[in-house]
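Please predict the structure of the following assembly.
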Amino acid sequence: MANIPLMQCRQTDMGYGRKVVLPDVSLAVAPGEVLGILGPNGAGKTTLLKTLLGLLPPVRGAISVPAGRARVRFGYVPQRQVVDETFPLTAADVVLMGRYGLLRPGRRPGRDDHAATLRALAEVGMADQARRLYRELSGGQKQRVLIARALAGQPTVLVLDEPTTDMDLGSERAILELIQRLRAEHGLTVLVVSHLLHVVLTLATRVALVDRRVEVLPVEDARGSEVLSAFYGVRVQVHAINGMHVVV
Amino acid sequence: MLHDLFSPFMLTSYLASALVGTACGFLSVYVILKRLVFLAVALAQLVSAAVALAFFLHLNPTVAALGGVVLGALLFSWPALGSVLPRENAIGTSYALASAAGVLLIAKNAQGEEHLLNLLYGSVLTVPPGELWVMGGVVILAGAVYLRYAKEFLFTSFDPEMARTLGVRTRLWEAVLYVSLGLVIALAIHLGGIMLVFALLVMPGYAVLLARSRLRPAFWGAVVLALLAAVAGPALSLIWDVPTSAVSIGLLGLFVIGGAGIGHWRGALERGR
Ligand SMILES: Nc1ncnc2c1ncn2[C@@H]1O[C@H](COP(=O)(O)OP(=O)(O)OP(=O)(O)O)[C@@H](O)[C@H]1O
Ligand SMILES: [Mg+2]
């Protein structure tokens, strides 16, 4: 059971319209894994993520779901900058939207949904901020709210696009630990895009190196300095300190 | 005087105002939050141009207005429109062209000029009763759809990408929003004139959101303000013998100033805590 992939694609071309950005992608996402997605700007990381999420139709081929649609429920944490801040919504209002996917069109959220909203906020340490306006929260707090929103929908696959950009060291660390804890407690599958090598090398079980092509390897292999040096074309050294991986 | 205020003629115009106010006031919150102000003016101007064209060619103006709005909504939501430069530029250009076309057509239209001007810039005082029924039907239908599918509309306009990953049909809800905006504009201009309709599509939402209202109360608040301003227009215009739209818009201006004041005060209170 465990080795039936949640999602997979074979020789799929990904891109926009007829323009192929990532040709010939073959990838299988296993349940419970943390797939870290690395690559330079414009490499196609977001393209890969959006195609897997079904936001972007593949140019050729298809994404299949061998585990069955019912076992794939996404919890998408978009880049914080993408979220519209003019709306006068509280943290709880934003998190409640995570429940909407579980409700049929025209159905209103009920008591269960409000309870799940508060639980998700508590899980990310934001229970006391539930009634504050989202737009008046700090950057790290907003990120936590967006993670809570993803969790409120009881996802099986958590998808994070650059979750720690613009964050201070403490918040970044806290988010990482949160993701690790959530994965351990809920058995979530995690797809995470990041520019921060140490984030990916610390969190991931497998790494996808994306640069106009996709190469997937176990995280241990990616931690080897030669692989990353060759990939980025600059000298990279990886050191392990207190379970974190530091990149020089 | 009191007797005049409640004549059947005036009651009709209150009803027309109430319908226009309710629909525009509700949509004004979306107009502000989704930054559709520019789009709303351009759609309104397209409607006037279409009506002027219909007069010129002796066609049915209501059909022309609806046609103009559908064309405009389709044009402005065409994805390629924003691919090189922001969509606003195309919207602004259409606005200018539609205004020019309207002016030109009115100037060249020898007979019925006054009637046409009244239709475009006129007031709720000249409402044909048949149109009230149409507008009433549209308001009730749209209201029911918006209330029932409130969460879909909210999710689609706040974060369409996340909504799509959860299986929400964002294209559908967005299309419904644009079409209802267009429909309301087309019908309301007929009843209230372009100036009033535009003011009602922007200022009530602006006032309540300036007052730092939360989202759900903002919709109700905007409807109440729009209703007040729209219905007070014909009444005060009778009493003071001034144009209706000007009175309504003046009131809306006061609401916006009041909203800004309340927002400022609430902000200071929150910072003080
Ligand atoms: N909407 C689009 N239409 C056409 N091409 C696009 C579109 N979005 C991105 N691209 C192109 O696809 C390529 C990959 O973009 P993508 O956003 O996936 O990169 P990325 O790896 O996420 O980069 P970054 O690190 O800067 O976020 C780029 O060359 C980009 O120009
Ligand atoms: Mg990206």
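The longest strand of chain A covers residues 19-29. Chain A touches chain B at residues 53-55, 74, 76, 78, 82-84, 86-90, 93-94, 97-98, 100-101, 103, 105-106, 108-109, 149, 153, 159 (CB under 8 Å).
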